[in-house]
Design goal:
Layout: H1 17-62, E1 69-71, E2 77-83, E3 86-97, H2 101-110, E4 123-128, E5 145-156
Antiparallel strand pairs: 1-3, 2-3, 3-5, 4-5
Keywords: Membrane, Transmembrane, Transmembrane helix
Transmembrane segments: 27-48
């Protein structure tokens, strides 16, 4: 004869790992908010100044090139540095030209390109060309040669751009 047994008790619901992780991260989120806000406050002046410099690069690229000249292989590069709140920038770009280097240099010295502060032509211009060891231009055999143009200037930093200190 068989002895009647009680039906098995229902299993207790198991808590999933996801809900435990969600609870932990939900508790940490309010602690991270002040750090994220601080990061945004510190980086905002950098982003603003980068935008101002990017607009200047756009104006440089929109400026008419000397005849027989095209932009080189790399995009313009921007470097920012500073000291005691003064912000210095260098915008470097490459040109491939048939014109003499001095003519290209004079073209950019006479160009009235608005700088990040809204002033026209408030920067210095330098030109660089590549030479090999004997002192002849690297690409001296062709009619075109590569010229690197540097525009160096200073702008008023927006807020507390950490690169300017």
């Amino acid at each position: 004869m068989s002895i009647p047994r009680d039906p098995p008790a229902p299993a207790a619901p198991q808590k999933s790992r996801i809900s435990r992780l969600a609870r932990r991260s939900g508790c940490l989120a309010p602690l991270l908010v002040p750090f994220l806000l601080l990061a945004v406050i510190v980086m905002a002046p950098v982003w603003i100044n980068d935008h101002r410099l990017a607009r200047m690069v756009d104006r440089i690229q929109a400026n008419p090139l000397p005849s027989g000249t095209v932009f080189g292989y790399f995009d313009p590069q921007v470097e920012v540095s500073g000291d005691s709140g003064d912000c210095w920038y260098t915008i470097r770009f490459q040109l491939s030209t048939e014109r003499p280097v001095q003519e290209v240099l004079n073209h950019y010295r006479q160009a009235k390109i608005e700088d990040p502060d809204g002033e026209l032509g408030d920067y210095e211009v330098e030109a660089w060309i590549s030479f090999d060891e004997p002192g002849t231009p690297v690409d001296g055999s062709s009619a075109t040669h590569s010229v690197i143009i540097d525009l160096d200037g200073m702008y008023d930093g927006t807020g507390m751009d950490m690169r300017c200190y």
